[in-house]
Amino acid sequence: GIAFAAPTPTLRFEHLSVDDGLAQESVLAIVQDKDGFMWFGTQSGLSRYDGYRFTNFRNVVGDPKTLANNWVRVLYADRKGRLWIGTDGGLDRYEPQTGTFSHFLPDEPAKRGNGNRHIHAIIGDGKDGLWLATGDGLQHFDIATGRFATWHHEPSDPASLADDQVNAVALDHQGRLWIGTSSGLDSLAPDLLRFEPDKPITEKGLR
């Protein structure tokens, strides 16, 4: 007999835009928090959607409790339900009790402009910390202490990070850290993931 391909199902998308209250139409990141709210990072602020309406959060010059920067690239809800926001002005945490934001910045100066404040990806480290992919190296943030550790590409060290432009990070089931850079792919075994800046990573992973 003749086999007929099944017709492609028609998908009916619901469109939500600035006309509905979204901060801006270039949506860069999406996450759902523990309370069921949907959060959207845009190029012009952060939007929260409760299923009916949007609430928008933006930087207000002179108000340190507002969003650090309106270019929101990445959103991450950790295992304790905390919402982390990666912006072009650094790492923020949303404080639901007050509707404000706490800001976290590394003490170490950037090698390239403000690249260490440009957060491209966030993942949990499996404990109480975060790995951050930035425009100026790989960062680890210890939530309990507020301490950052940063690793850079060192031209004289072949075991260092491939490139300071870090675009993506992931942890696999074995606890190995994968780091996507602009000059290749690095990986690190679990027993070499040291968070103290004075104990540098010495193993070079896959390139």
Q: What is the secondary structure topology, with strand pairs?
A:
Layout: E1 27-32, E2 38-42, E3 45-49, E4 54-57, E5 72-77, E6 83-87, E7 90-95, E8 100-104, E9 119-124, E10 129-134, E11 137-142, E12 147-151, E13 166-171, E14 177-181, E15 184-188
Question: Would you summarize the structure shown here?
Answer:
This protein is mainly β. It is built from no helices and 15 strands. The chain has a 4-stranded antiparallel β-sheet, with no helix packed on it.
Could you explain the architecture of this structure?
It is globular, with a radius of gyration of 20 Å. Strand 3 (about 45-50) and strand 4 (about 55) form a beta hairpin. The termini are far apart. With about 210 residues, the chain is mainly beta. It contains no helices and 15 strands. A four-stranded antiparallel beta sheet has the order 1-2-3-4, with no helix packed on it. It has strands spanning about 25-30, 40, 45-50, 55, 70-75, 85, 90-95, 100-105, 120-125, 130-135, 135-140, 145-150, 165-170, 175-180, 185-190.
